[in-house]
Amino acid sequence: MLDEAVMEIATKEVVTVTPDTPITKAIGIMEENHFHNLVVVDERGELYLVTMHDLLLASSVHEHVGELMFKPHCIHKDTPVMDAVCELIESGQRAAPIVDDKGKLVGIVTDYDIMKRAATSKILKDVEASKIMTRNPITIHEDESIGKARSLMRKHNVGRLIVVDDEENPIGIVTEDDILKKIFKPKRRMTVGEYSGEKTPRMEQPVKSIMSSPLITADVKDSVADVAKLMQEYDIRGVPIVKNKILRGIVTRLDIMKYIADLKKGAMIEVEIHGALDEDMRILAERIIATEVRKMVKHAGRIHWIKITIKREHDKGGTPYYHITVYVKTPNKLYVGDASPKLSKTKRLEAEGEDVGYISEKQRWDFIEVLKNALISVEKQIDADRERYHPRTLGKKLREEEIE
């Protein structure tokens, strides 16, 4: 479960520059290699990092990268991928140099590498994109100005906007880096009068003039692994999520990395199981438990422990079935959820007029269904409490009481 060493997914041949490298040259290296980050090594062998975004914001193209570089968090080469993702998120970096025991540079890992690995993750293939997407993403009409796009990004603290047409159909995407590259630092300046003889300042030109199109999207039913694959294939940082071509949300690389970090948190919770799992369903059952526990962690914030009791019982006809109870202890409450299958009748089999015996119409999948129902029962309770005590809900109750 993303437990291989980070060196297995990292880039081993690292392109580096020195602090006295001109910004224009560094940008050229990054654009040629499709880099968003560049490792800087000084004369003492000290490691630094500089980002494309920072270079584009430089006040002068005559500056050197040494004026914009920073001391990065480095990741040890033997660190598991899941832990490396957590370290990246905590550091606020999109990339990190990989070092050996002596602190020597041996590679670099980026969010692009994480997406490449996430695209093949069996666990992420079981998670729908709709589960982690940001709903109601910020949009902008194709004819609205580039200046308004930048203003919206700053107001909502986002790095990209989805561009829509008159029917609110998503048709493109514009990022902060698009504005920086094409407006502030363009190779070919957009001049007054460039568009159909119009004399319009660059920031007042329509956002459709710099948006990326056609738009790469994913369906709400697609898995997180599918979305990560799109990001890796097209080297994009955000994928709009649609249903019947209607925009429903957006998933970014950071969303996927945060979810992976949540997997790590969920993996650290002790799950105590009393009773025997159905051996034929053990692997699937363990995957379902892991998935549902991660959801609980995401909703509850902190969980002390989880206990699952499994009892195998028999109906009046002797058919075995399972009764499962789930106990989840959070800092504020003990949640209990249980489930049993709807008992079904047995049916008689006959072959050429002879009795063959009795078999149950129930399937082994009943065990999985009961397990999921018990876990989901607790999730619903946690969700209900989260909604009940959400500041928005409490504020609404207070206003209603004041009116009364």
From TrEMBL:
Using the record, list the residue span of the signal peptide; answer none if the entry has no such feature.
none
| Pfam families in UniProt | CBS
Q: Which residues form the CBS domain?
A: 10-67, 68-127, 133-190, 211-271
InterPro entries to which the protein is assigned, alphabetical: CBS_dom (IPR000644), CBS_dom_sf (IPR046342), Diverse_CBS-Domain (IPR051257), UCP036983_2CBS_MJ1404 (IPR014651)
User: In terms of domain of life, where is this protein from?
Assistant: Archaea
Q: Which UniProt keywords apply?
A: CBS domain, Repeat
In the UniProt record, does the keyword Metal-binding occur? no
Q: Is this entry keyworded Disulfide bond? A: no
What is the name of the protein in this document? Answer: Putative signal transduction protein with CBS domains
